[in-house]
Amino acid sequence: xxxxxxxxxxxxxxxxxxxxxxxxxxxxxxxxxxxxxxxxxxxxxxxxxxxxxxxxxxxxxxxxxxxxxxxxxxxxxxxxxxxxxxxxxxxxxxxxxxxxxxxxxxxxxxxxxxxxxxxxxxxxxxxxxxxxxxxx
Length: 136
Description:
Helices cover about 0% and strands about 45% of the residues. It is mostly beta strands. It has one domain (about 5-135). The strands form 2 sheets. The protein has a 6-stranded mixed sheet, with no helix packed on it. A hairpin with a 4-residue loop joins strand 7 (about 80-90) and strand 8. The model has no long low-confidence stretch (mean pLDDT about 90).
């Protein structure tokens, strides 16, 4: 849980309001296409730009499409192993993200997942977004 001394690692991508689950900061085009993250360069569906693309809050819930365990990473600051998941958000977009505590038997496609904020530094003051498999 965040408090007044906590900071989000990527506040342009997600936020959290008092005691509520994290919210992803995506967008919606006038044509109805929903995307993440928010951008104004152009809709992938119809090509509209600028004011046609409006911010939209996306719930951090979806279904796991696929997952892969990374056993070795070139960046020494990123200890392996860790799990990357492809998630179809309930609100529309498909994203790739880190999964939290996902044993191999929980990586089956179709499993429900939810967004959580986890501390990512030794002080416990910086938080980043992860997804975890929801237990049935």
